[in-house]
Amino acid sequence: MASSTTLTCSSFLGEPISSASSSSKPLSGATHLRFSPPPGNQCSHRCFLVFSRKLSGLEEAMRIRRERELQSSGKVRRRPPLRRGKVSARLPVPENIPKPPYVNSSSLPDLSKEPQIHDAEGIARMKAACELAARVLEYAGTLVRPSITTNEIDKAVHKMIIDAGAYPSPLGYGGFPKSVCTSVNECMCHGIPDSRQLQSGDIINIDVTVFLNGYHGDTSKTFLCGKVDEQTERLVRVTEECMNRAISACKDGANFRKIGKKISYHAERYGYGVAECFVGHGVGTVFHSEPLILHFRNDKPGCMVEGQTFTIEPILTMGSIESITWDDNWTTLTADGSPAAQFEHTILITRTGAEILTKC
């Protein structure tokens, strides 16, 4: 589940941090580049300036191309805006199932400042929690079809989790009323399951977190419902590719900023925006902790450590990365109503790379 920013984690948290210290912008003009041409080469400075202008115009060119594709393609069907359905009562959890400490409070827990680095026993428990989360998510995906409600998906997920002797981590987190997040179409993150029926052409991110034997396992995926138009299907595919490319850059000693660089570079090739208001997070015995994982280009310091677990969960948009949040204080949509997609894995940092713990 994200943490939201002004920045925030996209798994579930809403912990504000200063974007001024963490974000750096992509190239925006030739004036940001300084070159000293070698003596005797009169055209080098001019060539560098031309090259820098081409770089700075890439993002704008891709945005324009995407808009033209959307306007010219008869295959893209504009869907009506997402509307709130009826939210049913909170589902019960058997007393014998261990619960995380935040369950009996409606306040949003503070972000833990300690990164979560595990010994052998902790890693084994993390793997068990993440394996269950992955199986639950895979099952939830099989339910996605036209006419099913997100509330029905929530009930099925809830039952599978408690039948496994685990607790659905979102339930009661900061007052969240359901056991899973279901974010449809333009919903970026933290959609609350309700009575709305899925329709052919929808996309839906299902975000599953389970609390098992004292550890949280966190994962999400965007699924296609029925016949989805080509442009939206590509957005979903590229979002998953961004996540996988970011994971490939992770290992003991690697800089966290490599994650945002990998994601931004691949997203911009297709003209997509990368949401800056939701971030990944440390996860383990605590649902959300440092480090916060920025999915966009940034200069945030810090390196990964062997034995550490955290989520990578980028959100890509087909239009604006600005967002609006409904008065339920959870459901967050793209400001312009454009589709958004998200994928998430919990990973374990090893000496030579990263192990995906939530992979089926």
From TrEMBL:
<comment type="similarity">
    <text>Belongs to the peptidase M24A family. Methionine aminopeptidase type 1 subfamily.</text>
</comment>
<protein>
    <recommendedName>
        <fullName>Methionine aminopeptidase</fullName>
        <ecNumber>3.4.11.18</ecNumber>
    </recommendedName>
</protein>
<feature type="binding site">
    <location>
        <position position="281"/>
    </location>
    <ligand>
        <name>a divalent metal cation 2</name>
    </ligand>
</feature>
<feature type="binding site">
    <location>
        <position position="218"/>
    </location>
    <ligand>
        <name>a divalent metal cation 2</name>
    </ligand>
</feature>
<feature type="binding site">
    <location>
        <position position="313"/>
    </location>
    <ligand>
        <name>a divalent metal cation 2</name>
    </ligand>
</feature>
<dbReference type="InterPro" id="IPR001714">
    <property type="entry name" value="Pept_M24_MAP"/>
</dbReference>
<dbReference type="GO" id="GO:0006508">
    <property type="term" value="P:proteolysis"/>
</dbReference>
<keyword id="KW-0479">Metal-binding</keyword>
<feature type="binding site">
    <location>
        <position position="190"/>
    </location>
    <ligand>
        <name>substrate</name>
    </ligand>
</feature>
<dbReference type="InterPro" id="IPR002467">
    <property type="entry name" value="Pept_M24A_MAP1"/>
</dbReference>
<feature type="binding site">
    <location>
        <position position="207"/>
    </location>
    <ligand>
        <name>a divalent metal cation 1</name>
    </ligand>
</feature>
<dbReference type="GO" id="GO:0004239">
    <property type="term" value="F:initiator methionyl aminopeptidase activity"/>
</dbReference>
<feature type="region of interest" description="Disordered">
    <location>
        <begin position="91"/>
        <end position="110"/>
    </location>
</feature>
<feature type="binding site">
    <location>
        <position position="218"/>
    </location>
    <ligand>
        <name>a divalent metal cation 1</name>
    </ligand>
</feature>
<feature type="binding site">
    <location>
        <position position="288"/>
    </location>
    <ligand>
        <name>substrate</name>
    </ligand>
</feature>
<dbReference type="GO" id="GO:0070006">
    <property type="term" value="F:metalloaminopeptidase activity"/>
</dbReference>
<feature type="domain" description="Peptidase M24">
    <location>
        <begin position="125"/>
        <end position="350"/>
    </location>
</feature>
<keyword id="KW-0031">Aminopeptidase</keyword>
<keyword id="KW-0378">Hydrolase</keyword>
<dbReference type="InterPro" id="IPR036005">
    <property type="entry name" value="Creatinase/aminopeptidase-like"/>
</dbReference>
<feature type="binding site">
    <location>
        <position position="344"/>
    </location>
    <ligand>
        <name>a divalent metal cation 1</name>
    </ligand>
</feature>
<feature type="binding site">
    <location>
        <position position="344"/>
    </location>
    <ligand>
        <name>a divalent metal cation 2</name>
    </ligand>
</feature>
<dbReference type="InterPro" id="IPR000994">
    <property type="entry name" value="Pept_M24"/>
</dbReference>
<dbReference type="Pfam" id="PF00557">
    <property type="entry name" value="Peptidase_M24"/>
</dbReference>
<dbReference type="GO" id="GO:0046872">
    <property type="term" value="F:metal ion binding"/>
</dbReference>
<comment type="function">
    <text>Cotranslationally removes the N-terminal methionine from nascent proteins. The N-terminal methionine is often cleaved when the second residue in the primary sequence is small and uncharged (Met-Ala-, Cys, Gly, Pro, Ser, Thr, or Val).</text>
</comment>
<keyword id="KW-0809">Transit peptide</keyword>
<keyword id="KW-0645">Protease</keyword>
